[in-house]
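Hey, quick one: can you model this chain's 3D structure?
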Amino acid sequence: MIDRAHRAGFTLVELLLFTGVISIMAGAIVSFSLISSNIAVHNEMVSEVEQNGDVVLQRMIRTVREGGRVAYPLTGSAATALLLTSGNPEKEILFYLHGDRIAMAENGAASYLTTGNVTMDSLQFLHFGTPQDGEGISISFRALNKAIGSQVNAGQYSRIFRATTTLMPGGCARDADCSVSPFDTCCSGLCRPDCGSCLSHSDCVGGQVCCVESGTPTCKAAESCSSPQCLTIADCPSTEPTCDLATCDYKVATCTGNACSTITIGPCPSCSYCGDGQTDPLLDEECDDADSDSTDACTTSCRRASCGDGIRQALGANGVSGGGDDEECDDGNKLDDDGCTQTCQDVDLCTGGASNGIREGDEECDDGNASDADACDTQCRRTVCGDGTVQNPNGAGVDEDCEEDADCGGGQFCNTASCICLALGICGNARKETGEECDDGKRCTDTGDVCATNDDCPNGQCCGFSRDGCTTPQECIIQSSSSSSSSTSSSSSSSSSSSTSSSSSSSSSSSSSSSSSSSSSTSSSSSSSS
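Sure thing. Here's the predicted structure for all 530 residues.
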């Protein structure tokens, strides 16, 4: 007879029930943690978008209020850039979109107004009114976060920001307030040569401008205003920012010594890219030598060479032998016991100081031979592209063609970033050559490395891209700003306009603010989607 009072353990059914309950509880806890994490990430994204958008909007409003006149766009028209005069007649202020961030150029120097984690697009400025009676600007743009890493699961958040602000009409009360010849007469609050045919561009019709030549204002076509005089840039016949595709210079109108001219504030937003030979701080470039060599003072990612960047620069950052920065190796870390010190000097990892075919201690490998031309060098370290010796394959399993140009055959050069030989004189070889305006090369879709064929890409394809302003490999020519903006806007609209517009209609808020002075007022509204 079984003594049930002394039975120990659980039945199979009880164990299964217990396991099921524990699994359900664990699943619920994990799900709750993931949801909480996504909510926190989403809230962080929302906060960053809101803060960036508010900062940009308020900066624009304040600058417009404090500015003198709107030089571009002309009254009654809209544009993607805003050019203002300031208290200094020879100082201009420009707001524009550079890539996916809003930039501000003041007195010839440009800087970003937004962080790199927030994308801006759909920037629009509408100019209304006249400088005599009061003019204003309506501003609108969209801000959205860059969903990367863990943020992808939290979705994307976007918001449309809008605002309208007005400027003080005129700027003078009497002739004594106007002291710069020939603009020495006060007419309806504006310093003009006389109060005759036109006071500003808004007085002219049919696309004409108010042209001041030899002290006389006359309405005429902008192209026929050959020797314009100006008090500020708002008097110049042509004020639209332009891009010189031949040099990729972004030029803005300026008024110096009563004469209209242009200044270059930096590379054009439509054609600037790493490898064009112009250093663009707005793209976070530290240098740009327009070559495919990462072993010199400027890498192919437009960063200044330095010990720890993972690329061996034999002559160091200064490009000259000696000076204490010559590199024997560069493994991209700050460890001293892995074969390469944090000062980029070689360390022999072989136990006992010699390779014996048996991996021991701190050795990365040990093949027991005296060759550096295989996957393991004579100091028991895995070989890599850029170590000065060609391996097939190297320690990373990659077949190398070269380490320097001399390793390649005639009509070829060595791309030292990928250790492959590329043909000279062809579009798509990542080297700007005679007849080309640019050449950023074909790249692997999996690694981003320069490539010649699909064989150079471990798990991807070797493709040319045109979204960065340089079409490859069909033709090495810079895209026009119109084609770039067309493709961008179509892509943007297909991916986000539906969600943004639907949310925009359901969730919008408006607020208005006015200055204590009756000279200006501001109203703003926004819509968001997530």
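One thing worth noting: The helical segments are 12-66, 481-506.
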